[in-house]
Amino acid sequence: MHPDKDKPLAGPSFGPVWLQKLRNKLRLLYHSQAPGAQRFQYAVLLVDLAIIAFFIATPLLKDNPSFLWIDYTIAAILLIDFTARALASTDILRWLRQPPVIIDVFILLTLLAPGWLVNLGFLRILRLWTLTRGYAFWRPLKKHGLASYQDTIQAVINLLVFLFVVTGFVYTAFANRSDGITGYVDALYFTVATVTTTGFGDVTLPGTMGKLASIVIMIIGISLFVRLAQSIFRPNKIVFPCPQCGLQKHDPDAVHCKACGHILNIPNAGED
């Protein structure tokens, strides 16, 4: 975490004093490493994970009478969190231009207008990807000396997000129109079979568009699998920027930088 994260907002003050105090308080809650702030960040992370679980289960729950109430409740929670994060940023306009934030805005719109954007609801799982863009998601790993597994976990998450996005797309676009896809589980089965290039052939997508979609799914899926395999089987690296050349990752026991030969002083695992 950058050392100035625990400090009040920098730069010129705009608006009433109470608003500046609120922004400083929110910035400390969302970015500080103080024990109280970390408990708040963990609580927010748990709520986010519960919301993502709801997004994954949405195709199975959407016919439930209480679905819309849950949907709007989650929309309210995300809207409060989104507003708080915006106020906690030092530059709101720059923050709004970040890709994860833009995706979160779209997800919020699908929650606020589920009737109009029902066919794009499967993109809500992208919330899992935007969640991994934040430091709070990875802090538990780093706190327990497991930072070397970050690349592997990120590769797994990227693959899972891709699988559920494609499953949602296949279910929305081809359900009851292709051989064998009559429900969400069938769409998930087709996606996994296609991504793994197993190709049982019992579930297929019709027409030229179906063939093109299958090709894209296979190409991207194989790329993600290769990325996952690389992160699992390649030697573990740790993030320790070289003071001379800036190379970010080195072997845990490295004494010299492989790029420039500069002497490194990498702390032992678990040390702050």
From TrEMBL:
Record-annotated Potassium channel domain positions: 161-232
Recorded GO CC terms: voltage-gated potassium channel complex
SUPFAM superfamilies recorded: Voltage-gated potassium channels
Compartment list: Membrane
Membrane-traversing stretches: 42-61, 67-88, 100-123, 153-174, 181-200, 212-229
InterPro entries the record matches: K_chnl_dom, K_chnl_volt-dep_EAG/ELK/ERG, VG_K_chnl
One example of a Gene Ontology biological process annotation: action potential
Keywords in alphabetical order: Ion channel, Ion transport, Membrane, Transmembrane, Transmembrane helix, Transport
Membrane-topology annotation of the record: Multi-pass membrane protein
Major location (coarse): membrane
A GO term, aspect molecular function: voltage-gated potassium channel activity
Pfam families reported for this sequence: Ion_trans_2 (PF07885)
Stated name of the protein: Ion transporter
Organism of this sequence: Devosia epidermidihirudinis
